[in-house]
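Researcher: Here's a chain I'd like modeled. Treat it as a single chain, no partners, no ligands.
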Amino acid sequence: MKEVREDLVIDLAFLAHIPQESLAETGVLKQVVQQGELDEHEEDYPVQESRVKIQYESRLLCGRLLDSFKYYSYPVNFVISDIQLAGVRLGLKSMKRGEEAYLTVPSQLHYGPDYQMVLSDGSQMRMDAPLLYRVKLLDFSTPRPNYYLSTTPLALFWKYLARLKAQGNALYL
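Model: Modeled as a single isolated chain. Structure tokens:
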């Protein structure tokens, strides 16, 4: 008989008391555990190009742990657009810095119903059920857009100024 770790079981009764918020009718449910903070001088929410620093764990709704970066000594960094799971991308873009939330993601927004996951005990499982992610957004940064200055308009401007200078000099000589 396998040993059951109590710290891997989610208290679903606790989750029932947290208000749920639907993310734009996508099917992703967000339950905030800890509110994030707003900074007056920074962006409020990450965007698709933001680099996020998170801790997370993913579980089946029955509480079985699938993946976890919460217990490692370092958080993970991702660019939101590089995250393959659409439901997690949607959830992260609705979170504030420091916020911790449960995201209930339907199967069409994570691996998909045809995906076979190999679990730690060697068994395989179809991923056609919703998954529960506990995500903490530790920090994020949004890169500033790169603006490239074309030299063509500048060269035309300098030619125009040189022509004006030559015309002005010709009048006073």
